[in-house]
What does this fold into?
Amino acid sequence: MSGFRKLGLFAFAVAPAVLATGCHPFGMGIFTPIPVQPWVAERMTQKYTPAVGDRTPIMPPIRDGYPAPLCEDPPGDHEVLRIFKIRRGVPYVYEQFFDDVHMIKNRLVDKIDPPRFFPLVGLAQLHHCHWEVVIKFVETQQSDWPFPTNIKRNRTQVIYIDKDHLHLYVGPNPDMQRQILQEMTKYGG
It folds into this structure.
């Protein structure tokens, strides 16, 4: 046998063993892992889950002779952080962290409109609840490539949140108001 032929048979016999081992990109065939950025799962969850929290709630009617309800429920921390935009980075190239986060929540508007007709609801009163949230935090920008850097800055950001809701309006009849309140809350005060 000629030398070229022996070399060809040897390469043909050894090639599958060499390709099946090692750290080359296609060593596992169709089972080769594909790198995926860490925030892809979050983005898919946000995209495909329905936003139930964005619907306007319908509350029981405001009863005559009782004080008007106040906006006593400030936005929750999870709601504020969902609205707060966080820039994504590339791991080990550019990353951004937030430490010592403090939130100050101020009520700006607490107003109830006169009754009017709302489609799919009927006669109702719109209760405006507007909040201002001041977020104070320490922003850390970190990079490990091409050279290590670590920058820390005190930051302040202001976010405005509307938590409007509807109160059904059933008229000035106190018996009707009590009945609707009892049906909606299972409480008949």
User: Anything to note?
Assistant: Residues 3-19 form the longest helix (17 residues).
